């Protein structure tokens, strides 16, 4: 078997399912693939972990909250999409260089097409303007959203992302005229419990997508379904972006549907 070492850098990632998802698919593809978790919480630790992984012969690393934007300055090059987004969730070590990629945008796009293929999307409200939010915003505009209202507790982040993508920052009143709502913030994750907006603002004419996948059913999704909204959670996005990262690490196209089924089993 060909050996392949990969991993994930982030904060509060001890319950991540990425090791099981990648290692099992690796075995099914005839690889001796190991996937390690590096739970760090400072930029200094991010840099040292990258340095150590590259020195130790890793094929690459996934990057998650809160480092998707901070990691950019530590890389030698970016894929065109990662450069356009300004955030990286996959780093590949190859030929003495660190190259950053973004598979989040692909993951969101594929999930959206699979589960909300026929919804109106002229105006969408997005909660979150961090690394994941930048990727989701890029994806939403690429699939035909005309007006994207960005909302983040950090008003400077809302302003910066909105300016970068040619849109305007907004507030929750935008929901009155929106077709859809996307939560691209960490609110709803196990380590950031809660709901990112007042539930009474949800209504049946508003579809809702939440990129959080642990837990599978977030408080936002429960409230949206209670209001009669069509919804999609973060499970499919997670599987699709993981499959794209697997391909970048190994050079082998994985069985994406098999990875999605495996993730469903892991989350059951």
Mean pLDDT across all amino acids: 97
Provide a count of the helices.
Answer: 9
CATH topology of the largest domain: Rossmann fold
| Count of DSSP strands | 11
What is the string of helix and strand elements? EHEHEEHEEHEHEHEEHEHH
Percent in helix: 25-40%
Strand content: 15-25%
Indicate the CATH architecture of the largest domain: 3-Layer(aba) Sandwich
Written description of the protein model:
- Shikimate binds at residues 16-18, 64, 89, 104, 213, 241.
- Involved in the biosynthesis of the chorismate, which leads to the biosynthesis of aromatic amino acids. Catalyzes the reversible NADPH linked reduction of 3-dehydroshikimate (DHSA) to yield shikimate (SA).
- InterPro entries: Aminoacid_DH-like_N_sf (IPR046346), NAD(P)-bd_dom_sf (IPR036291), SDH_C (IPR041121), Shikimate_DH-bd_N (IPR013708), Shikimate_DH_fam (IPR022893).
- Its EC number is 1.1.1.25.
- By secondary structure, the protein is an alpha/beta fold.
- It has two domains: 3-103 and 241-267, Leucine Dehydrogenase, chain A, domain 1 (Rossmann fold), CATH 3.40.50; 120-229, Rossmann fold, CATH 3.40.50.720.
- The protein is 37% helix and 20% strand.
- It is built from nine helices and eleven strands.
- The strands form two sheets. Strands 2-1-3-5-6-4 form a six-stranded mixed sheet, with helices on both faces. The protein has a five-stranded parallel sheet with strand order 8-7-9-10-11, with helices on both faces.
- Strand 1, helix 1 and strand 2 (31-39) form a beta-alpha-beta unit.
- The longest helix is centred in the C-terminal third of the chain and has 16 residues, at 235-250.
- The radius of gyration is 18 Å and the shape is globular.
């Amino acid at each position: 078997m060909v050996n392949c070492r990969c991993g994930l850098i982030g904060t509060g990632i001890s319950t991540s399912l990425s090791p099981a998802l990648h290692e099992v698919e690796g075995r099914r593809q005839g690889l001796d693939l190991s996937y390690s978790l590096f739970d760090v919480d400072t930029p200094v630790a991010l840099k040292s972990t990258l340095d150590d992984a590259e020195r130790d012969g890793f094929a690459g690393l996934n990057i998650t909250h809160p480092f998707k934007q901070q990691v950019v300055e530590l890389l030698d090059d970016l894929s065109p999409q990662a450069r356009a987004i300004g955030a990286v969730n996959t780093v590949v070590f190859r030929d003495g260089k660190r190259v950053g990629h973004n598979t989040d945008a692909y993951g969101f796009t594929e999930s959206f097409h699979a589960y909300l293929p026929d919804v109106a999307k002229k105006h969408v409200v997005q909660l979150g303007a961090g690394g994941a939010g930048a990727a989701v915003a890029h994806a939403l505009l690429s699939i035909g959203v005309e007006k994207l209202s960005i909302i983040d507790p950090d008003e400077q982040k809302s302003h910066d992302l909105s300016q970068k993508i040619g849109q305007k920052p907004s507030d929750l009143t935008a929901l009155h005229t929106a077709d859809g709502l996307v939560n691209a913030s960490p609110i709803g994750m196990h380590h950031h419990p809660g709901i990112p907006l007042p539930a009474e603002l949800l209504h049946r004419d508003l579809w809702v997508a939440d990129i959080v996948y642990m837990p599978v059913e977030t408080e936002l999704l429960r409230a949206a379904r209670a209001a009669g909204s069509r919804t999609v959670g973060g499970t499919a996005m997670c599987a699709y972006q993981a499959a794209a990262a697997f391909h970048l690490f190994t050079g082998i196209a994985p069985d994406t549907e098999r990875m999605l089924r495996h993730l469903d089993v892991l989350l059951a």
